[in-house]
Amino acid sequence: MMARDKSKKLDFKYFCKNDRFIDFLKNTEVRKDIYCSKEAFISLTLALVILFTLTVAFLNGEGIEKTSANLKELLGILIGGLFGMLGFIIGGLALVVGTLNTEEVKLIDKKDKFKSLLGILFRFYFVGMITAITIFLSTIAYIFLLIRLEFQWYLVVVFTFILLFFIVFSILSAVMLMGSCIRLLFVKISVSNAMDKLKK
Fold this sequence. Notes:
This protein has a domain at 67-200. Helices cover 84% and strands 0% of the residues. It contains eight helices and no strands. The chain has helices spanning 2-7, 12-17, 21-27, 38-62, 64-98, 102-110, 114-147, 153-199.
């Protein structure tokens, strides 16, 4: 079974039949960004630092009422900002895909580089999904603060850490999409040069 998986040709035809998010996630290296990338490491570090700071602020007499009020205000602003960022990611993907023409995609596929192209494009989809998850988690946190539910302390810490990680990771990944756009430019230049050689 594994031998067949390794030998399958990840070309345009394959991805036409396997075009779900989970298919792209399994067949590209983008999934590693969430646990094995500089963005993940920085997100992990900053999440721990922010969590420590919030814990110290709470224990040093800020009080649960004042802390909750400040966090609700911050989350409200954050959720609005994340929706805006999600819109830019979707718009960016539409613009990037629009720059590719049929001849370029066919040549990339012929050179067995379609998986590489898909990896660049799928990163927009992936970051958009992470941003959507972050919005969902932030909304849950906002509702919990609004209705003042009582939870075990360790559950609050774990949830807060996960939320902070996703917030930082979403922001960093959105910024890193600029690198994906630059890499796509290199791909287009390479394809253009190859097409010029074919015409000669």
